[in-house]
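Page 47, continued from p. 46.
Same chain as before, 326 aa.
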Amino acid sequence: MTQIADSGWQPGGVTPAEVARRYADAGVAVLLPDRVGYPAALVGDAGAPAVLCAAGEPSVLEARPAVAIVGTRSATPYGAKVAGELGMGLAAAGVVVVSGLARGIDAAAHNGALAAGPDAAPPVAVVGTGLDVPYPTQNRALWHRVAAIGAVLSEAALGTVARPRVFPARNRIIAALSDVVVVVESHRGGGSLYTAEAAARRSIPVCAVPGSVYSRSSSGTNELLVDGCTPVRDVDDVLAAVALARQGRGMLPAAPVGVKRRREASRSAPTDRVQRSVWEAVDDTPTPVETVLLRTDLSLAALMMAGEELVEVGLLTAGAGWWARA
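Result:
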């Protein structure tokens, strides 16, 4: 817990010692990019959180493959069944199931992973609230079960309540932790597509479960398939995608074609107001994310999304907890 004192991260304006005591009492570890325990998959990532809180044991991510299973909160019985079966099958095969502990697809995937038994790979969740604020409240028991067996991670300070903007931001962490992202059900423009785009920016394969053309809950996933994502019918399809991704053979389309088109269209100087404010707040030399946050007065979620987009189009470079002008 003394790590907090060195980080400059002091939520609530209290002293580092008081913060450390509060986190220790809550059973929450604070992980920093240059310290032991920080997930290896995030080290060097353009969107790596400067501070990551953990309940449980984040080391379950090390030396195991990981698959993100994401989708709509308003899952259909079909989507929930598929997500549960994929979660159970992947966990039984030794794959860490990563999701966001939201209602619908996320909850079904985590419940499936937990149902795989004591010898299965533990699940990992990435949430947008403080680790003392389970959200949604109906998933409180699931939240604690995941933390007891695997880990629940958040870049939010204790006491942080749910706000809409934090959830798209946390999706970049879900993507970065995973070898493959599987979208089970998503409306067109649904939040899980943020995870798909974050994965595409990292050349992480994105797979999608086909759904009925008459189902609005599958309109987004079917569009991903049209864009060139790999279809998933069962656990074996996902395991094959994981094997190819970890071998680095590049046989899967990592980025949806639609995402590639949007990415290529954005390679000019920042005209978006939020992106421009972030770009202007960054120096030619490495500038800590915390400094940019103070200079811009943006929310952390908006800041991280804009910074990641600027890195992607080549206007910023990134390191562990900093950005610099490219």
